[in-house]
Amino acid sequence: MNIKTPKIFTLQEVKSALPYVKSVVSDLVSLHQQLSGMNDKKTDNYLHIRRQMELCRKELHSVGCHIKSEKGGLVAFYWKGKSGIAELYWQLGEEDIYYWKEIGKKNLNLLPNAIKKIEFSLHKLKTPSM
Predict the structure, then answer these.
(1) Range of the domain at 50
(2) Per the structure, how many domains does the chain have?
(3) Is 72 within the bounds of a domain?
(4) pLDDT at 79
(5) pLDDT at 116
(6) Pick from 37, 35, 102, 32: nearest CA to 73
(7) Comparing 2-16, 72-86, 104-118, which segment has the lowest mean pLDDT?
(8) Residue 23 lies in a domain
(9) 52-91 core/surface letters (b: 16 or more CB in 10 A; e: else)
(10) Is 101's pLDDT higher than 90?
(11) Would you say which domain of life the source belongs to (predicted)?
């Protein structure tokens, strides 16, 4: 059995991979929705959708990320944080990487760049337009 060592990303590598990952995850979520709505699991269409989903999973695996939720489009990337290996999280619909979590812990943490983006967005809301 050949066990592959997981890829450890930098934040910049994750950001570079995001456009492709967004596309694949979007397809995977759409396929998951189609599959969830099907009652007959013996049809050719059902089997075709399952194969397409497996291809999406393989594409994400080849990038080095792992799917946490096919329904919600949540993906994680292994990342070297300050206290060791952690996971960076991205979810379908988000513009950027905002969250990280220590492996084995439950709480998500905001990345410093996410805090700045949130503060900037709030500042824009408070600033009266001319």
Answers:
(1) 11-126
(2) 1
(3) yes
(4) 95
(5) 60
(6) 32
(7) 104-118
(8) yes
(9) bbeebeebbeebbbebeebeebbbbbbbebeeeebbbbbb
(10) yes
(11) Bacteria
